[in-house]
Amino acid sequence: MPILNAIVHRIADAAGEASMSLVPATAALPVSSALDDLLAGVNDAFNAKPKAWGHFAETTPEGEVSSPLASELGDYLDGGRDFVRFSRDLAARIADLVSAHLSLSGDLLVLDHQVGDNRYLSLALLHHRQGFGIDDQLAVVPVRQLNLTQMSLAARINISQWQAGDAKPYLSWTHDRGGKKMAEGFAALVGAEESVDASGETRTLLKAFSDYVEQEGLPEEASREKTDALIDYASDQVRRGEPMTLEALSEVLDEQQPKAFYDHIRNADYGLSPEIPPDRKTLNQFRRFTGRAGGVSISFDSHLLGSSVEYDEDQDRLIIKQVPKQLREQLTRQG
């Protein structure tokens, strides 16, 4: 992933004060293999976190300009301001936000980089931890390390989609510390407006999948294979930081009938977008419980526990509230 520009600005404790101050860099970082590795690590850490997805808001609810970031970014891309000035102005606003909500110092990493055909602007506030190393004399020495998993604030903008006027959510952002007010402050600072409910869309997709499996009357083994295929695909997209595509998912689920699941979604009108940012937490809840004993075989998706299926631990009973149509017809005929 070629790096076009990169810089680090430090947000540190002000001497003798409770607030934070900005220690700005005066020049961009030279491209190096270490910087490439750092970007890869930051991307992995960012992709693993829950995120909001959306776009730049033009105005606030009060009718004011939402944030100068969009116009400043456009100015930088057009050559109206250099990268150092652009990133320094952004860092100054983030320093004010951190000062109001955090007591942790950190380094703000800002990168302009290319991934395939897309250009991105990524920013992440990184903190440090104390570690240990071995020097050339084989002695143990303290080492100050970046803690990539501890991102207080991070955001990524798909510049290519934004400039093309793409309707897809081209802006994603996350927050790990500081509470609701800091999260709202960061979204306002970026000028971000959430346009996709990743958790809700992922839940709806999983509901559509469960309906599809039930409608097709698939045997347990085939159902489990398709569930594993869905989870594998979605988890891979989480790691890549990219949305799930309904058509691609449909092909993954059934190579012989690659449009079957896609047609099921469209015909049932679940209201899903063609591309869905996967929500890791929701996916982790989508597992299957299976068991077989004494001629009884039971298998169901874990997210149904507590709704369509209940387990009474005291009586050791499993209560199925919504009997599958195929099973219900068999029981009716038997009676």
What would you say this structure looks like, in words?
The chain is an alpha+beta fold and 335 residues long. The chain folds into two domains: 3-196, no CATH class; 198-334, no CATH class. The protein is built from eleven helices and 14 strands. The protein has helices at 33-47, 69-77, 83-101, 159-163, 179-190, 198-216, 220-240, 246-253, 260-268, 280-284, 325-334, and strands at 3-13, 20-23, 52-56, 106-115, 118-134, 140-158, 171-175, 192-196, 244-245, 275-276, 288-293, 296-301, 309-312, 317-320. Strands 2-1-4-5-6-7-3-8 form an eight-stranded antiparallel sheet. A two-stranded antiparallel ribbon has the order 9-10. A hairpin with a 2-residue loop joins strand 11 and strand 12. It is elongated and about 80 Å long.
List the keywords.
335 residues, alpha+beta, two-stranded antiparallel ribbon, 14 strands, 39% helix, Nucleoid-associated protein
**Beta-strand percentage?**
25-35%
Order the strands across the largest sheet as they lie in space: 2-1-4-5-6-7-3-8
Largest sheet geometry:
8 strands, antiparallel
Number of helices: 11
H/E topology pattern? EEHEHHEEEHEHEHHEHHEHEEEEH
State the domain count.
Answer: 2
| N- to C-terminal distance | 65 Å
Radius of gyration: 25 Å
The overall pLDDT, averaged over residues, is 86
Structural class: alpha+beta
GO molecular function, one term: double-stranded DNA binding
Family: Belongs to the YejK family.
Keywords: Cytoplasm
Pfam families: NA37
